[in-house]
Amino acid sequence: MKHVSTITVPSSGAQIPSIGLGTFGSDHISPEQIAQSVRFAISAGYRHIDCASVYGNEAEIGKVFEEVFSSGEISREDVWITGKLWNDAHAPEHARKSFQKTLNDLRLDYLDLYLIHWPFRNHHPPHASVDSRSPNATPYRHDQFMETWRVLEEFSDSGHARHIGTSNMSIAKLELLLRDARIRPSVNEMELHPHFQQRKLFDFCKANEMAVIGYSPLGSPNRPDRDKTDLDTVDMDDPVIRRIAETHNVHPAAICLKWAVANQHVPIPLSTKEKNILSNLEAVMNDPLTAEEKKEIDQIDRNCRLIKGQVFLWEGADDYHDLWDEQGFIAQSY
Ligand SMILES: NC(=O)c1ccc[n+]([C@@H]2O[C@H](COP(=O)([O-])OP(=O)(O)OC[C@H]3O[C@@H](n4cnc5c(N)ncnc54)[C@H](OP(=O)(O)O)[C@@H]3O)[C@@H](O)[C@H]2O)c1
Fold first, then answer.
1. Mean per-residue pLDDT for 138-160?
2. Cα gap 101→99, rounded to integer Å
3. Is 273 in the pocket of ligand 1 (CB under 6 A)?
4. How far, in Å, CA of 41 to CA of 38, rounded?
5. Is the C-beta atom of 217 inside 6 A of ligand 1?
6. Res 226: pLDDT
7. Which candidate, 84, 86, 76, 85, places its Cα nearest to that of 108?
8. CB of residue 304 inside a 6 A radius of ligand 1
9. Whose alpha carbon is nearest atom 5 of ligand 1?
10. What is the pLDDT of residues 132-146, one digit of tens each?
11. Average pLDDT over every residue of 141-166
12. Are 154 and 122 a contacting pair, CB within 8 Å?
């Protein structure tokens, strides 16, 4: 079997396989179905799986890992496995318990990467309306974030997390973390697709020696309804993407993934269909975009954020823009 290419993590020299399988079932795909996709993906050649405790399927995925690794079919060392700490477990004692539960559920001795999923302790009941505001939600608190980061540094020290990192961050928040961290983040996971290219944040991560994992690389067509608005655009319907897909005789999804790897992102598309799991892998392994095609897609950015995080807003906040520090400074209480 031809091996998938890798991207180097600057802080350690470790190699991240340049495509991973996402495992967020978007509230409508069962844990068993996701676990089955993981099983199929590994047998097809995927060597990178993106997990999170909040996806509610780590126990089912763990059974697959145990089966695959104990059969000797593939060695644990050959698969990059990411986990994420959910917002309701940032307090140190809770973070330690949650990390241990993830290791137990996934049936692993260590994770390749452990991320703080969102830089807020704000959370919400499942299926909460996007207009609801938790009375306990607050703007970003750097003291609290660092308290949680110190716990991730412990996991790194003990070797139970080979890398630690962040997700859903802004440059302003990362600057504070880089200033105060004893162990700097090795990886940042962020939304990245042709209509949402986040160039400044991506370049900032690279300049600060972070590898970048790109989530929702196909524009998350089946994301939960709470994350959809009338202003959202559809990457795979973009005329430039469709035309280039015709030239390569592939689905537009493949073009989004070829564009991602051409930009040194590590895309983590989710699929539950064997055909799509295979064609996504194929897309990053063969028939790359020409420099001209990459350039054309670089020019179709619409700054269209799909995973807006409205449910994490606090009382008094205006709208989701307050979460993302778009003016270069961190929103404070109103
Ligand atoms: N860090 C974070 O906060 C964060 C946030 C969001 C997502 N993520 C991670 O990123 C992963 C991917 O993001 P996502 O699931 O939002 O969106 P995505 O990967 O952009 O899109 C997934 C959807 O695209 C469809 N699809 C996949 N391959 C296809 C193909 N070849 N042709 C046509 N359709 C195809 C899938 O449907 P089928 O099943 O029918 O193929 C699936 O519903 C998640 O699963 C999760 O692991 C992380």
1. 97
2. 5
3. yes
4. 5
5. yes
6. 78
7. 76
8. no
9. 215
10. 888 889 999 999 999
11. 98
12. no
Q: Look at the chain and count its residues.
A: 334
Phi and psi of 285, rounded to 5°? Answer: -95, -25
> Quick one: tokens of 44?
């097809």
Q: Within a 13 Å sphere around the CA of 186, how many CA atoms are in the beta-carbon half?
A: 23
Instruction: Render 109-144 in DSSP notation, one character per residue.
Output: S-BSEEEESSS------TT--TT---TT--S--HHH
List the domains of the chain with CATH numbers.
6-321 (3.20.20.100)
- Tell whether ligand 1 has an atom less than 6 A from the beta carbon of residue 270: yes
Ligand 1 pocket: which of 85, 201, 232, 271 to mutate (most atoms within 8 A of CB): 271
Q: 142: CA distance to ligand 1 center in Å?
A: 31
Helix runs in 91-225, H state only: 92-106, 142-157, 171-180, 199-207
**Helix, strand, coil percent content, the chain, rounded in steps of 5:** 40, 10, 45
39 within 8 A of 62, measured Cβ to Cβ? no
Q: What mean pLDDT comes out for the span 281-290?
A: 98
Tokens (6 digits) for 22 = 């996402």
Quick one: 85 exposed, middle or buried, by C-beta within 10 A (0-12, 13-18, 19+)?
A: buried
Using one digit for the tens of pLDDT, what is the confidence trace for 53-73?
Answer: 999 999 999 999 999 999 998
Worst-scoring range by mean pLDDT, 29-38, 174-183, 222-231, 258-267?
222-231
Q: Active-site residue 320, yes or no?
A: no
